[in-house]
Amino acid sequence: MMRNRLQKLLHKSERGQAIILVAFAIIGLVAMVGLVTDTGILLIEYGKLKRGVDAAAVSAAQQYRLSGNVLDTEALENAAYNFLQLNQSTDITSVTVLHCESGADVFTDLNTNGTWEAGEPLIKDWNGNGTFDPVNTPSLCNPDPVGSPNDNRKLVEVIASKKVYFGFLSVIGIRETTVTASAVGEAATIDLVLVIDTSASMAYETEHIVGTTPVQDAGDDPSVCNGTNTCQPMRAVKDIALDFLDTLYFPYDRVAIVTMTSQTPGGDRNPRLLLPLNSDKNTVRAAISGIKVFEPRDCDGSSTPGTCLNYDGSGVFTGAICQIFDNLSATNDPSSCPSSNVGGALNLARGAFTDPSDPDFARLDAFWVVVTLLGGPANATDATVTYPNGFCPAYTFYLQPVSAWPGPWCRDREPSVRHAADDPLVSYENPISHAVSDISYYDADDYARDMADNLATLTTGEGVTIFTIGLGAQIQSTGTVEVGEPPVAEALLQYIAECAGEPGHICDNPVKVINHGQYFYAPDSNALTDIFDRIAKNIATKISQ
Which of 6, 49, 331, 544 could bridge across to 186 with cysteines, CB 3.0–4.6 Å? Predict the structure, then answer.
């Protein structure tokens, strides 16, 4: 009897222990299910926050290029907040936006004495050390932006925290946690080369415009309008270029300027690097303001090669002419006359990004951009030993009827056909003497395309992006090309911006290896403002970290 009672008591005790074990097992199972489920919720919410922070960092970094040379820090911070809201990042507990212009910390002056004292809350604690810092030098800044421009980076860091509420884990008392995500957005630091056409056509509108054909009038004398800064459309181009500078951020961005011709009276037609890459805005502005239209020597009745300024017996300007080709003949050579050496200017633009004497000059992490503005086709090249005045095939000297053709010279009559400098010579008959000789068809247009290829394939961290602008009626003129051929100037500008550097020179090649820009046509200077604005907006912003 006693034994039976003891057995029953032990049996009941075992059942009680099993209930306890089952209870603990259920709690453990719930905890495990909760851990798995709520970990998934945690990862999902962190992912949402991270995407929002990434977008906020990019949006905030864009303010560097939208604010010009004075950063709107309030707009920068608002851009970050707005993108966090757009990405449905709710329950955010804190947002910090850091940038080089963050400045001093901001505190609530409870004691109203203008001095921070321990215990007074910090509204902005840029360094995150809990102490008021009157000078802020976060890691986002370059301490010497002018002396060490290679270290300049337009960085914005966004740090955000939010609460994540649990479901199953709340059963065991874990109701919520806080996750934090950060991202650094970078507005591309820009090295920009402006290539400006300064040939005689940039003064053809000083007095007035005659139809669609450039006609020089007495008021278009570059020796006069250069001094008064009234050459048109050059003056309009310079004014718009100056406005364009306000979309850049100095001293982080740098600008170089290449002109198509010399900038001194009586000068030559060779392109010039007017200003190497420079991070000082005032220096860049002064260089742009001082750009002048090509002003060659005055005509003296000699057969000296090159363009000269011609005046009638009363001293009235009648236009720029080429005395060596003043009278039509079978032997005259106008190769020294034109002044639009597009290829030479692009070659200088290429060299502007690097300085062999200074290995630290090139900023390989910068966004390399070239903006080229032309008023007509390429008609000149750099000189060679074989061609002392540059490439200007004899087939471009004359058009039919020969007796009515005073120029222009050296323009490609078949822009759809690409020639190389080492192509076999072609038989050519002089239309005046009818003498037959072998000549090269390689011309200024071909040379410009070759130099564009060299520029576009210049290797950097981000590549070279070229934008081209064609200004005026000459850009779309077909007056000097064979029937069925495209406008020679427009075809060239489209190639430079959208095709240069591609394998086989094929624009629609499916394998793109170049960061191409875009070609724009401006019928007159009034269209330039919108074009430069569109180019500014095409300058990319990227996620850095």
Answer: 544
